[in-house]
Amino acid sequence: MRWATRERIHIDRAACAWLIRRHIDPAPVFVFVADPGDVPADAIAFDIPGAELSHHGGDCSFETILRRYELDDPVLWRIAAIVHEADLDDQRYDAPEAPGIDMVLRGLSMIRDDQEILRLTAPVFDGMYEFCRRALLLGREPS
Amino acid sequence: MSGPQRRPGEWVLLTYRLPREPSTPRSAVWRKLRRLGVAQISDGLVALPAAARTREQLEWVAEEVTDAGGTAAIWLATPAARAEEERLTTVMAASRAAEYQALITAAAAAAGSTSDPVARAGIVRRLRNELRAIQRRDYFPPPDRDLAEEAVHTLADGPGEALAASRPDASQSRSPGPGESP
Question: What ipTM score was computed for the predicted complex, to two decimals?
């Protein structure tokens, strides 16, 4: 399947792309567009104003995708809290990790293109997932 | 930045209209705009200096407005005259300066009234968060920015250290204050 989002990606779009690949479509092709009107007809748009899979009711796009695809894994919702705060910083969640990951993504966007950022951040999100999964199972911070 | 040839920069504008009732989405939108530190040009027209991030943030507010049954549009624009831009930057810097001053007042009040280190640490944490929130929406830093940082640092350092830091010759050495054991 083809998936389209705005170019010059940041935390929310990078996390959405990872989520799509891991939980929705194992062989996605990502297209980055400058203008919402440039989304190809056969592509599913995400994190683009006007798209179904974007910000709605105070949710960031990552949360919207979790809801639309009924992904109720609590580990993914913990990551959603971090992505939400890194993206919107509105104190809806307690996510002290957010400013750190926000800086990492903003820095990457200064030195790498969008496809490369997806490649580089996939293991970062995999690692965050594993960390949050163990923390949830243990009921405390994993070592 | 300030030569006579300097052209006004690019701004991202959000023009929006929301029904007066219900008032909840109206105030939610307004709270968001305040947190972003927008300059209000007129009723229903706000501006931020254009950048990928500011543009995106305003685009999401626009989306929220239309989701709530209002109308909104995003424009990229350049003020026709430098004076126009200076009016915006002056107002924005003054708004941030007022916020920094409120923070400085809060830090001074806490320094004067709280000697309990645990209570003080709690206040420091809150003020640091507040400082970070103001800095995120500070696009044209006024001098008060440094003063606010200093006020929070001083409070965090505690009474003895604060005294030492205020002595110009002692600012590097961090020697213990009077009556404090080394």
Answer: 0.86
